[in-house]
Amino acid sequence: MTGNCRFCQTPLKHTFVDLGMSPISNAFLKPEQLNQGEKFYPLHAYVCDNCFLVQLEEFETPDAIFSNDYAYFSSYSETFLHHAENYTQMMRERLRFNSESLVIEIASNDGYLLQYFQKQGVRVLGIEPAANVARVAESKGIPSWVKFFGTTTAQEIVRQEKQADLLIGNNVLAHVPDINDFVAGMKIALKPTGIFTMEFPHLLKLMECNQFDTIYHEHFSYLSFLTVENIFAYHGLTLFDVEDIPTHGGSLRIYGKHDSNSNYEVTDRLNNFRHKEIQAQLNRIDTYLGFAEKVRSTKRQLLQFLIKIKSQCQTIVGYGAPAKGNTLLNYCGIGTDFIDYTVDRSPHKQGLFLPGTHIPIYHPDKISETRPDYVVILPWNIKDEIMEQMAHIKDWGGQFLIPIPQTEVVS
């Protein structure tokens, strides 16, 4: 990689993992596009030996990735909706909102979270760059600005006197190429007495559980607590609490404030968590350099299993069309020669084809029609929800296949 760390500007020279060439993970294809050329980009993650930020190069702009045809809608996961509702209740009890309080969510998607604050009489504002997704939130009565977040948008928030009592960013910090501009914008958009929370997949969990498929071009950064704490401190923001949460295979939720805000003390939980990451040696470059071989081993194991199944003339289909699934399939070279089709609950993906592999996407009812021997769960982070929804495959002896952290069959 020719370039510098997107946070500290240190020259990057260490590979974390190289997943070859891959298309943009949410660049689903329409039938008429199947015979046209596709763009593939290097999916090569590097780690900075100064701040230990794991990161990708920027090959496509956020404008190109989060276009008007952006296909991810948060509300199609019951697991994620329950998570959002529980968070809303917890924060209401913790912060004692009133009718004058304002909650702003960055990357608010289709209003999956802000709807719960709104139902409780709290003022809300969503910031969402994908116009087609923001329109869904607007249809629910949730005010939404169709903008990317950074210092420019934050300054507009100040001009309109809309600084946040609670500023939320769930699964967005990894998505921004200019992480310094983004965090600087958070400082501007937050009231002096306000707090922010952010959720993001935990790099330590990614490494421990071999979650390499969460690496794709939308995710510019892969974050440990130690690195995130340094990034926010650089911009005058103090983290005062952190907790493990189960979303996306293991994430962190951080709580932060202005350095000048004395209303919240740093918790023992945060201090213990920092110590845990130091014990895991996330502040040493050697810790990151053995991950690539784990990934190659998983690829070989999965392919050996699929080859065995197909040699026995058994059928395999997929469940879900998540971004992580497209990383897995393209890296492993798994197309329609292995997986006949996949299904997804989102009507925005049905009738389209996965990028790179050209696997068709159908309604989940297709599985009952074809009665496959195996269903590969591509969004393995919500495998329990999916196995409950699709429990009827057992009626014909069908089995679930979980590919991450290692190939596992569940009857």
TrEMBL record:
Gene3D superfamilies assigned to the protein according to its UniProt record, in alphabetical order: Methyltransferase, zinc-binding domain, NAD(P)-binding Rossmann-like Domain, Vaccinia Virus protein VP39
Coiled coil: none
Domain C-methyltransferase: from-to ranges: 246-405
Methyltransferase putative zinc binding domain: residues covered: 5-66
SUPFAM superfamilies: S-adenosyl-L-methionine-dependent methyltransferases (SSF53335)
InterPro entries (alphabetical): Methyltransf_Zn-bd_dom_put (IPR013630), Methyltransf_Zn-bd_dom_put_sf (IPR038576), MeTrfase_14 (IPR013691), SAM-dependent_MTases_sf (IPR029063), Thiol_S-MT (IPR052356)
Name of one Pfam family that matches: Methyltransf_23
Highest rank taxon of the organism: Bacteria
Protein name, UniProt field: C-methyltransferase
